[in-house]
Amino acid sequence: MRDEIFELHPNLSADFHPLGRRGAIHLLLRRNAALPWFILVPETDALELYDVPTPLRRELDQLIDALARFVKARFACDKINIAAIGNIVPQLHVHVIGRRRDDCCWPQAAWGHVHETRSYSDTDLAALVQALANEVPNGR
Amino acid sequence: MRDEIFELHPNLSADFHPLGRRGAIHLLLRRNAALPWFILVPETDALELYDVPTPLRRELDQLIDALARFVKARFACDKINIAAIGNIVPQLHVHVIGRRRDDCCWPQAAWGHVHETRSYSDTDLAALVQALANEVPNGR
Predict the structure, then answer these.
(1) Which residue of A has its CA nearest to B69?
(2) What is the structure's pLDDT at A117?
(3) From B4's CA, which of A26, A48, B23, B86 has a CA 20 to 30 Å away?
(4) Whole-angstrom Cα distance, residue B17 to residue B20?
(5) The domain A2-135 belongs to what CATH superfamily?
(6) Domain ranges of chain A
(7) Residues B84, B94 contacting (CB under 8 angstroms)
(8) Residues of A with CB below 8 A from B114's CB?
(9) B90-113 pLDDT per residue, tens
(10) Which residues pair with B22 in a beta bridge?
(11) Which of A50, A67, A71, A77 is best to mutate for the B interface (most B CBs within 10 A)?
(12) ipTM score here?
């Protein structure tokens, strides 16, 4: 079974809370709560977006949009930053980051510019998982 | 006519060479040749990808993929970085950046980390425009 052999890259597991899956796509939240920073990790060996097989790619694209709308509204963001970088962690992952003019590193891009550390409470996380279940269902 | 009223944000015109259009999407190349750094600018007032109207969005998505494949091959890149950020320049633009392990700021993300300046020659630019015309035609 595909589910049994797919493993998240250890850097991703270390830095992000797992928030569940949507089909074959894992949804995670950066443990550092300085920014509402999510990633989506599709279960694929592809390293570039253009190499993700078509059905999974479509689900991923739809989920990116749905998550971006959710983050924009829930965290009252001024801008959503979306990116697939992967220079350090090769396992394909797409960043969906909510940005506000009053956040820790506006207007800089988040990568390498977050110098503040905060945590989510268990209550925050549970509420977020519930809201995501309602508002960002399976991308299929 | 839409074409007559759409104007590129002055920061984009200042920092990027225009390389032509594909339908209603402008293709540009960062003047600093330290990295092969392209952007795509769709003619839209939308500020977030998820707000780009469907026909244009589809063209944009296809063009991102085609440009990414082109950049990967032509510049012998190890990774393609794709992003929509827009914290500083609100006009919607998607970055397609070719990265190599031996480039100026590997493995850092490019934004805010390029501290080297190089230029493209006119010959380089002409060859690139020609190759793009052949290999990255209209995304439609």
Answers:
(1) A50
(2) 97
(3) B86
(4) 9
(5) HIT-like (3.30.428.10)
(6) 2-135
(7) yes
(8) none
(9) 999 999 999 999 999 999 999 999
(10) B25
(11) A50
(12) 0.95
Taking CA–CA distances from A79, the nearest residue in chain B reads B87
- Residue showing tokens 């074959």: A24
Determine, for residues A81 and B80 on separate chains, whether the beta-carbon distance falls below 8 Å.
no
Tokens of B51: 């707000």
- Contact residues for A36 (Cβ-Cβ < 8 A; gap 6+): A29, A71, A74, A75, A77, A97, A98
Distance CA A94, CA B49 (A): 14
State whether B85 and A87 contact (CB < 8 Å): no
pLDDT, position A137: 85
pLDDT digits (tens, 9 = 90+) for B74-87: 999 999 999 999 99
Contact A108 B106 (CB under 8 A): no
Q: Which H, E and C letters describe chain B, residue by residue? A: CHHHHCCCCHHHHHHEEEEEEECCEEEEEECCCCCCEEEEEECCCCCCHHHCCHHHHHHHHHHHHHHHHHHHHHCCCCEEEEEECCCCCCCCCEEEEEECCCCCCCCCCCCCCCCCCCCCCHHHHHHHHHHHHHHCCCCC
Residues sharing a CB contact under 8 Å with residue A122, sequence separation 6 or more, in sequence order: none
CB contact under 8 A, B87 and A106: yes
Cβ-Cβ pairs closer than 8 A, A with B, add up to: 83
For the CA atoms of B10, B13, B16, B17, the dihedral, rounded to the nearest 10 degrees, stands at: 180
